[in-house]
């Protein structure tokens, strides 16, 4: 039975519409139930997950739990952890959890334990990182490597970019740079201040065919060759890929190639050798803590009862907002400047996973699926788009993330202000401000009555806008691992409820195919006649602008 056909689904919708049952005024809900925060928050170690500002009741949560059971969430979770091929359109297991499994773990794929290989690659990454960090592995002229440039895109870029910035306080290795875009400006601007003698490139691509990555890698290879000669290339390149034959053809020596496996999805790959730039930046020990944090969250996800399970509850609430409430988007707002790339990372994780329109059985999905995910760090977002979150006509649930402590004890005052703002925003979204309160505030300030009448409606905040808050002590490697694994599992839970395959990404293919076909047209070696009139007109205009 599909989740949407389950009787609980109708009950959930009815419950939401039942004004007696479901709080429409969250201020009143908190007043009426002093236990509301305790009922709708969970902890795992020092990590607190609070969804009490969402308009749910105990009954809502129990109905959602029943939906999860109808969707066979526990069975699907077990299928994922045990290496079953749940990515049915690519006939692949989904085992990013194996990459951070404990030292005694055994994980079978096609009758073979994959853990010895996982550990061997991790050890090789550690040895290589140590050699680069200590200076025992140098560039071709004997100089120490001072800059590491990761060339990759999508999952081969966003995770390392996000995590390297997040872990800046632990960064004691060479400087890190990331080139992803096919736009020549990206590699040009990155290389302009670097020296070929002291730069190491990591070419990161699961398939080793992605046009952006291969084009940038070739440009980088030429840059090294021109400065230091062809024989220098080996000392300045390493690669991360599942396609070892293609890496060899590019000319990177086998001892500098770090493999991974088809059961690691690109957007789930930062725990694999794709994390090499993170490891070189922060060191193997911190990388191990990052993996250990993710493993802790895996264990929690695998074993905690459904309504005590943070990723499960986060997924259930996400599903409720998307399907039952019909909210089209969610905003992720880390009150942490070093999580500035978290929203971009989560966009790929969530939208490439759950932006699907057919079910596992190939039928058109009966409910909306993954929401639009976006965000920026607070407090910056407050001075940009929070206006819409507070007073716009769409309701967009917000996810706040914050650490109780910063890494700069001497700037504690900054951190206190940061936290006060984070808490204030979720409170403001929830409480809002009534017309009466707006009027009273203006009258107290001595504003003339006529002015009060005119301005007051503009100063009303509807309130009752849902948000969740994720709090932890410090954004250290272990905590970052826990938070990222939490989001991965939440995406899994929602995908299970939508009954879709969260692990393929056919939706990126069509554009890639058309770009390949259009290249000769843009270059002017083929006629645009086969394109539609708009595309042909745009190409003509490009040629005119270039005088071609
Ligand atoms: O275009 C989408 C995608 O396939 C992502 O899923 C992937 O993370 C990215 O491209 C990069 O792919 P690769 O690591 O094979 O270069």
TrEMBL record:
It is an enzyme of class 5 (isomerase). Pathway: Carbohydrate biosynthesis; gluconeogenesis; Carbohydrate degradation; glycolysis; D-glyceraldehyde 3-phosphate and glycerone phosphate from D-glucose: step 2/4. InterPro entries: G6P_Isomerase, G6P_Isomerase_C, Phosphoglucose_isomerase_CS, SIS_dom_sf, SIS_PGI_1, SIS_PGI_2. It catalyses: alpha-D-glucose 6-phosphate = beta-D-fructose 6-phosphate. It comes from the Bacteria. CDD domains: SIS_PGI_1, SIS_PGI_2. GO terms for cellular component: cytosol. One of its GO terms (biological process) is gluconeogenesis. It is found in: Cytoplasm. GO terms for molecular function: carbohydrate derivative binding; glucose-6-phosphate isomerase activity; monosaccharide binding. PROSITE patterns: P_GLUCOSE_ISOMERASE_1, P_GLUCOSE_ISOMERASE_2, P_GLUCOSE_ISOMERASE_3. The keyword Disulfide bond does not apply. Catalyzes the reversible isomerization of glucose-6-phosphate to fructose-6-phosphate. HAMAP family: G6P_isomerase. This is Glucose-6-phosphate isomerase. It comes from Pseudaminobacter soli. The lineage of its organism: Bacteria, Pseudomonadati, Pseudomonadota, Alphaproteobacteria, Hyphomicrobiales.
């Amino acid at each position: 039975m599909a989740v949407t056909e389950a009787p609980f689904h109708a009950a959930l919708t009815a419950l939401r519409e039942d004004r007696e049952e479901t709080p429409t005024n969250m201020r009143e809900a908190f007043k009426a139930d002093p236990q509301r925060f305790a009922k709708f928050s969970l902890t795992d170690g020092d990590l607190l997950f609070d969804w009490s500002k969402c308009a749910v009741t105990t009954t809502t949560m129990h109905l959602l739990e029943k939906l999860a059971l109808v969707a066979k969430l526990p069975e699907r979770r077990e299928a994922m952890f045990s290496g079953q091929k749940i990515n049915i359109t690519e006939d692949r297991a989904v085992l990013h959890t194996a990459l951070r499994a404990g030292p005694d773990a055994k994980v079978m794929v096609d009758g073979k334990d994959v853990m010895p290989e996982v550990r061997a690659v991790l050890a090789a990454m550690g040895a290589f990182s140590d050699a680069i960090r200590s200076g025992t592995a140098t560039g071709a002229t004997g100089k120490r490597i001072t800059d590491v440039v990761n060339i990759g895109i999508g999952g081969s870029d966003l995770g390392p970019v996000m995590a390297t910035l997040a872990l800046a306080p632990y960064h004691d290795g060479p400087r890190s740079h990331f080139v992803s875009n096919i736009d020549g400006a990206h590699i040009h601007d990155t290389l302009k201040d670097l020296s070929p003698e002291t730069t190491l490139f990591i070419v990161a691509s699961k398939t080793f065919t992605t046009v952006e990555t291969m084009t940038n890698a070739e440009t980088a290879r030429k840059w090294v060759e021109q400065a230091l000669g062809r024989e220098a290339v080996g000392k300045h390149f390493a690669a991360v890929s599942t396609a070892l034959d293609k890496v060899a053809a590019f000319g990177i020596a086998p001892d500098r190639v770090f493999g991974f496996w088809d059961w690691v999805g690109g957007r789930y790959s930062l725990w694999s050798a794709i994390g090499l730039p993170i490891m070189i930046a922060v060191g193997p020990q911190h990388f191990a803590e990052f993996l250990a944090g993710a493993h802790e969250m895996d264990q929690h996800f695998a074993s905690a009862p459904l309504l005590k399970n943070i990723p499960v509850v986060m997924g259930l609430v996400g599903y409720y907002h998307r399907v039952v409430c019909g909210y089209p988007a969610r905003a992720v707002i880390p009150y942490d400047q070093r999580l500035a790339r978290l929203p971009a990372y989560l966009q790929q994780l969530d939208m490439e996973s759950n932006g699907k329109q057919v079910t596992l059985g190939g039928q058109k999905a009966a409910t909306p699926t993954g929401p639009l995910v976006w965000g920026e760090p607070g407090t910056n977002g407050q001075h940009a788009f929070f206006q819409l979150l507070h007073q716009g006509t769409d309701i967009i649930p917000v996810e706040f993330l914050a650490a109780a402590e910063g890494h700069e004890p001497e700037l504690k005052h900054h951190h206190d202000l940061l936290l006060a703002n984070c808490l204030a925003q979720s409170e403001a979204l929830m409480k809002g401000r009534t017309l009466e309160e707006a009027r009273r505030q203006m009258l107290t300030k001595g504003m003339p009555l006529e002015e009060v009448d005119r301005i007051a409606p503009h100063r009303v905040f509807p309130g009752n806008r849902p948000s969740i808050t994720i709090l932890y002590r410090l954004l250290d490697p272990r905590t970052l691992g826990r938070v990222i694994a939490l989001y991965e599992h939440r995406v899994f839970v929602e995908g299970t409820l939508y009954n879709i395959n969260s692990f393929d990404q056919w939706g990126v293919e069509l554009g890639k195919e058309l770009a390949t076909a259009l290249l000769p047209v843009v270059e002017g070696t083929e006629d645009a006649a086969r394109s539609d009139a708009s595309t042909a007109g745009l190409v003509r205009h490009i040629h005119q602008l270039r005088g071609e």
